Amino acid sequence: VLWDGRLYLLGGIAGDQKLFGVDLLTGRRTHAKSLEGPVTRPTVWDHGVVLRTKLDEISVLRPTRSGFRSAWTFRPRLGELSDPIVFEGEIYAVGPDCLLRFREGKREPIWKTGREGIRGKPALYGNHVYVIQERKNVRRMPSVNLIACERQTGEPAAAALVAYYTTDRLADPGVASEITVLSNRVYVKSPAGLAAKGATMRNAGIPRKDNGRELSFGEPVRLYSFSTSPAVHADGLVSLSDDGQLAWVIWQGDSGAKLAGEMEQPDFFRQWLAPTVVGDVVYFGTWAADVKTLDVLWRLPHERLKFPVVPADRMIVVVDPDGGVIAYGD
Q1: What letter would DSSP give residue 39?
Q2: pTM
Q3: How many CB atoms lie within 10 A of CB 137?
Q4: Which of 5, 22, 135, 318 is the most exposed, having the fewest neighbouring CB atoms within 10 Å of its CB?
Q5: List of residues 6+ apart from 242 with CB closer than 8 A
């Protein structure tokens, strides 16, 4: 994650991980801290770094001259917590069957919304926090639902059925979906193989209406399968689809338009990394193309990357397969 002229990244192996701070202009390592883990991807908040430092705790770490000091730790003693998200000085996370909202300086959550089957990482847009819930319907079949809760109170505001199962052979389907919220749609990316487990829908586009007083969802529309996490472009999404033929697809509303197919642009499919969109430039692994014309703009001098490209101020940052961090300017 990038913030205030520094790149914050995790290194090491499970059980022996470190959080590093790197100066973007010089590449010099400025901060380091050992973490017990298992940790999650860091995010930034009010001159600090926020991440899950243990399965059941979230920490706020502030940079010092050479390392990090622990400014605050949230330990609700509920069980495993999700990756946190941060907005306006507050932290949101999913715990076992609940959604939590924290504020620095308070040991207890501001609110806790208990709902059986809440899973995955939350998403936030405007005045609502979005989560996925697994539950059984009246026929005792598992279903997957999108729940929107009021950001200030945690009270449920709207819900939509994303998928249901035609078999109960999986008591807990283990859905860990990704949620992307845009102004007029909520996109839900479900794990690969969900259809084989008896689900009616793998990925869904859900119409979203919010007039400032009331939030409502329309009927979900089934989308192509997403083989990578989507990237946001304007009011749409870019993702890799594997429905029959590999293709990079841009979704706007409920319709997908092919940006590039494997037969026409095989170089764009040499590595299945999540795309990165910067303005009208989309990175397909090491290749950069104009998202509107699909003209190839340039290629980074790497055969493969370890992670998707990270945009920075007038530069991009990549991690090579050996863990080397490299910045390229414009």
Answers
A1: -
A2: 0.87
A3: 12
A4: 5
A5: 225, 227
